[in-house]
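Worked problem 6 (solution included).
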Amino acid sequence: MAQAAVFALRRKIAKIEGTLPEKLVAAGVAILHPSGSAWAEAGASGFLHTGVARLDNVLGGGVPAAALTEIHGGEMRDAGAVTGFALALASLSRNREPDREKRFLVLWIGMSQAFAETGFPHAPGLGALTGLAPDEIIIAQAPKLTDALWIAEEAARLRELSAVFLEIHGNPVRLDLTATRRLHRRAQLAGRPVFLLRQAARAEPTAAPLRLVVSPAPATARSTLTGPLADTIGCPAFTVTVSKSRTALPGQFILEWNPHERAFQERQPENSRPVVSAPAVRPDISPAAGAVVAFKSARPAAAVAHQPSRQQHPAHRGARRTG
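Solution. The predicted structure is:
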């Protein structure tokens, strides 16, 4: 019932904005019903096609090629999947760049906190996974959110860049509607995509017309000429959930990225099974700075009994704080 209510609300918002399927058809965007029947046949040059027909139909043609797009990770442990999916989109954009003579160049902006948690993109791995050369990606590290937003806004309007990625950790207050509107407008004017990677973040109102929630999916066994090879790990897979889109159509997909063909392909859930054991269940988000942490004493009871009393050490009366 909750999903039906949210879907009805999205439809009302899309109707107010004039982005219902019939409005998109009038604008020349190809949209297909989830069952596969065509609503209209028209070009969708303003979109980056993922290559998965069902996902492109739900998105109204694909990922917007000149807009702000959010890619969310619910937990910090999903950061690798979020980054890998974003780089796969960059690879698709590179392979389908209309101007082959122009140099493909990506700017990856990250805060020091995000890089400390997830690390920097690995240059040798970029070529194996996405085909991006080390000199095709520029990494900018910003100490504060205001610096990262300034770099992203200035870079978004540069036509020399093919795409801009901004990696943010959590839900900072300064990343509000005003900041995302500026990024979205700069992307529209430059005609280039800006991807906002939200690591371990909750969904909140932004100006991005598309929000995708990405998490890792179990990999299948490696395929061979004689069939699947047991106890092996195949291509990386992602669970992609459409949390927000202009068409207001929900959907969840399991996408497998083929690093050799540089393409996505959809996989059915029944064909997914874990190859390795899942990590231990534990709290993923660290406590806030200043939280009181109690440690159990590792000293023997005899040693504890001979310690000075609280009257001799008045400082022990107050709790010690970390951070």
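Discussion: Residues 12 and 248 are 9 Å apart (CA to CA).
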